[in-house]
Write a structure and sequence with these properties.
The chain is an alpha/beta fold and 252 residues long. The chain has a single domain, classed as NAD(P)-binding Rossmann-like Domain (Rossmann fold). Helices cover 44% and strands 15% of the residues. It contains 8 helices and 7 strands. Helix 2 links the parallel strand 2 and strand 3. Helix 1 runs parallel beside helix 2, helix 3 runs parallel beside helix 4 and helix 4 runs parallel beside helix 5. It is globular, with a radius of gyration of 17 Å. The N and C termini lie far apart (35 Å). It binds NADP nicotinamide-adenine-dinucleotide phosphate. The site of NADP nicotinamide-adenine-dinucleotide phosphate has 26 residues, from helix 1.
Length: 252
């Protein structure tokens, strides 16, 4: 494998590793030679089997990413007990749908906590350890095309994903000179649990598909392979960018 695109010898932490895009990222990381530390609240056995089928290693860490104290304790104990982490992928995320006039405080807080606050706290923990020990590292935050667009009926999700893009820029400005690359990926429409409600609505599904120049929805592996690029040496001069991986959706 071209060394510029290899993750050999590197340990990559992926949140939301049990399913969907997170699972796709774990498989892509393993194919690139990286060791995976999967973080989540549900069983990650399926992902572990897929990673092992690629000849990779998978270590599961159980944590509710909506629990601030648990998130902070989790990162520190992984580093202390198992050694350094070279890459962090903040993938876990949730979405709640309601008209803006009816949007509840609970639906606002829950989404902002998992999608934005936990993303920041894990970046902060990673930055403290990597900078503190004089190491190098990479962060990839999973944003959304709704980091650029407004969307509809997803107020907290859109706000959180605009926040992820802004946070990515802020951290890149602070940490680029300290050896950490911070970037994000903005997936378009991907076949996962997150989009089940959309895919169950024939009118919305047809309208979305008609707008995607690539003529298909994304599969998790499409996002996984782009994530590997942002974790690997090939992207060493990239800082603070949010790359759409959307089949051309934003180009329309
Ligand atoms: P998904 O299949 O619903 O997966 C979401 C992941 O986040 C799951 O692993 C889920 O775990 C985890 N998670 C959520 N809340 C958690 C919590 N409190 N503690 C621990 N884990 C938690 O959706 P996905 O499409 O793969 O989404 C992954 C990321 O991509 C999200 O950030 C999403 O916003 C983003 N994204 C998705 C799309 C798309 O079209 N699918 C487009 C743009 C961006 P459980 O299974 O245990 O709930």
């Amino acid at each position: 494998m071209n060394a510029a695109f290899s993750l050999a010898g590197r340990r990559i932490m992926v949140t939301g590793a049990n399913t969907g895009i997170g699972q796709g990222i774990c498989v892509s990381v393993a194919r690139a030679g990286g060791a995976v530390v999967g973080v989540g609240r549900s069983s990650m056995d399926e992902t572990a089997a897929l990673v092992k089928a690629e000849g990779g290693s998978f270590h599961a860490v159980h944590c509710d990413l909506g629990d601030t104290a648990a998130v902070q304790a989790m990162f520190g104990s992984i580093w202390k007990e198992q050694g350094p982490v070279d890459g962090l992928v903040n993938n876990a995320g949730i979405i709640r749908r309601a008209d803006a006039v009816d949007f509840s405080v609970a639906n606002w807080d829950e989404v902002m906590d998992v999608n934005l606050k936990t993303t920041f706290l894990l970046c902060q923990a990673f930055g403290r350890h990597v900078i503190g020990e004089g190491r190098k590292g990479s962060i990839v935050n999973i944003a959304s095309v709704l980091s650029f667009q407004g969307g509809i009926r997803v107020a907290s999700y859109t706000a959180s994903k605009h926040g992820v893009a802004g946070l990515t820029k802020l951290l890149a400005c602070e940490w680029a000179a300290k050896g950490i690359n911070v970037n994000a990926i903005a997936p378009g429409y991907v076949v996962t649990n997150n989009t089940e409600a959309l895919r169950n609505d024939p009118d919305r599904t047809a309208a979305i598909l008609a707008r995607i120049p690539a003529g298909r929805w994304a599969e998790p592996g499409d996002i996984g392979d782009a994530t590997v690029f942002l974790l690997a040496p090939a992207s060493k001069y990239m800082h603070g960018t949010t790359i759409p991986v959307d089949g051309g959706w934003l180009a329309r």
